[in-house]
Amino acid sequence: NGNPIPGVPVGILVEGGAARRYVTTDGSGRASFKLERPGRTLVFATHLRRDPDEPGWRSDFSTLTLNVGAP
Question: Which of 26, 51, 58, 65 has an alpha carbon within 20 to 30 A of 37's alpha carbon?
């Protein structure tokens, strides 16, 4: 429905970085990361929930790729 969703895991991966970092959206459906280095950056989220109509799950995926410049 396009509204922010609380409690969704959001990850970030910076090119050349050692590992992905994760946060969970807050009660307003917002997440934030400190951008610690320049480079191509991928932000990603998956909203996974039980399907109310059938056995199984429903999921929505979102990605954003950006180039973070040096400060």
Answer: 26
Give the tens place of pLDDT for each residue, 19-38.
899 999 999 999 999 888 88
Per-residue exposure over 14-41, b if at least 16 CB sit within 10 Å of its own CB, e if not: beeeeeeeeeebeeeeebeeeeeeeeeb
